[in-house]
Amino acid sequence: MMFLLSKLKDVDFWERQLRERLAEPIHLNLISLFVYFFGSFRAKVAFDLVERRRYAFALLKAADYAKAQGIGKIYALEFGVAAGAGLVNLAWLARHVTKDTGVEIGIVGFDTGTGMPRPVDYRDYPEEFIEGDFPLPDREALQRNLPPGVRVIYGPVGETARGFVESLDAPVGFVSLDLAYYSSTVDAMQALLGPAEKYLPMTLVYLGAVLIDNANPAVGELLAVREFNELHRFRQVHPFNCLRDKRIFKNAMWHNHIYTLHVLDHPKRAGVEKLKRDVWVLEQPYTAAES
């Protein structure tokens, strides 16, 4: 209840609703009312009716990918826990996604625990952030709000991300990079360079700071992604293909945050594992019409 009341008092929340929802066709908004009260979790995700929609979409999509490949468990990693609201919400979403898909989801957060480090240079937005921004006030309180099994690894991300994926017992399906800084994002992206089988062939990625006004390809996360792609031929981070066109509601800003890590050296994408299915055959309606 307190969370709902805080949302109702949030000016940015109402501005977002006016900009995103009321600009959509009225019949879709009317259908949304029915889905809100009577729809399934999957339907609510489709209609953008779940809190933290970008996480809901990415986590459900990752679980669907895993299920289609016969994978029963995946991991979701969040770099940049801050006060912990996103991680708590991610854990809540994971329970619902598991209930819907049957795919188990392990969740791990990464954070310094003391807020953002000092900006290294212009690439880290020194005009925007200062050392200590977004600290985690109470580690014990956060842990009490997290389900058993959800953990947070504290320390410099350059140290905690290195080699971490190799220790997991299932592939990574979703990675949230919400660090803003170029330097921190480069460090966190070490978690995208593990053995190919430690990821889904297409692993969902969230970039948290690509929409701030001063974001551009020469700084921050966008620069980190560009350099990552240039250095790693078989690991490519790219905006989720045609996401806006695939959604019911087209105006949501969160679409711009969703990327995909394409693991091109994955056995399923490198031609190592042969697909087991019948040959696709297209019908020729014109031939049938002539006869």
Automatic annotation (TrEMBL):
InterPro entries the UniProt entry points to: SAM-dependent_MTases_sf
Taxonomy, superkingdom: Bacteria
Protein name per Swiss-Prot or TrEMBL: Class I SAM-dependent methyltransferase
